[in-house]
Amino acid sequence: MGNNKSGALSKELLEDLKSNTKYSEPELCTWYQSFLKECPGGKISKGQFEGIYASFFPDADPTEYARHVFRSFDTNADGTLDFKEYIVALHLTSGGKTLQKLEWAFALYDVDGNGTISKNEILEIVKSIFNMIPADDQKNLPEDENTPEKRAEKIWKFFGKKENDKIAEGEFIQGVMNNKDILRLIQYDEPQKIKDKLKEKKH
């Protein structure tokens, strides 16, 4: 990103982010200033990203999930997120359009990046989601999805897959769009307090 160390966003990037996210120009400029304060080099490292997640989940352990989220947004696999990758991450995890969100969810679950999802990959992400759910809240989950294994099994059964089958991206997106219950099972719904904190970070 050509202009990532100066104090102002390049016009090109600003237009790109305005058309691809829900954020306005003043919001993006404010985000950019705080981004540069936190990351003067114009890049955010995996450790810093995990730190941001940790501050949102004081009662749980979001490290694994944050690691997977970071991987799914580090589109050029250089071990850092630039401002554009960071804003797209915020946008998609806090309210992007359904199709964009599902494309991202597929990338999140495709842990090895081979273009398909296996049952083990689903279990790996579901386990990282469970680490973020406080123990008391886990007790209130329905009987057939109150452990990572049960939830992964429920998702796998919905897609009608055998143990060693794989799910392709188109099939994943179509299946989830057709069934709101599966959408709920594959994602971590941020509690309101996290959304409030995200808003605070803008200012």
Taking the alpha carbons of the first and last residues, their distance comes to 24 Å
Derived from helix and strand composition plus strand pairing, the structural class reads: mainly alpha
Strand order across the largest sheet: 1-2
Q: Total number of β-strand segments? A: 4
Element-level helix/strand string: HHEHHEHHEHHHEHHH
Query: How confident is the prediction overall: mean pLDDT?
Result: 84
Instruction: Please count the helical segments.
Output: 12
Weakly predicted, low-confidence segments: 1-6, 191-195
Q: Rough shape?
A: globular
Q: What is the alpha-carbon Rg in Å?
A: 18 Å
The percent range for strand residues is: under 5%
- Overall helicity: 55-70%
Major sheet: 2 strands, antiparallel
Explain what the structure shows.
- By secondary structure, this protein is mainly α.
- It contains twelve helices and four strands; from the N terminus they run ααβααβααβαααβααα.
- It has helices spanning 11-20, 25-38, 46-56, 63-73, 83-93, 98-109, 119-130, 135-138, 148-158, 169-177, 180-186, 192-202, and strands spanning 43-45, 80-82, 116-117, 167-168.
- The chain has a two-stranded antiparallel sheet. Strands 3-4 form a two-stranded antiparallel sheet.
- Helix 4 (63-73) packs across helix 6 (98-109), helix 6 crosses helix 10 and helix 7 packs across helix 9 (148-158).
- The longest helix has 14 residues, at 25-38.
- It starts with 10 loop residues before the first helix and ends with a helix.
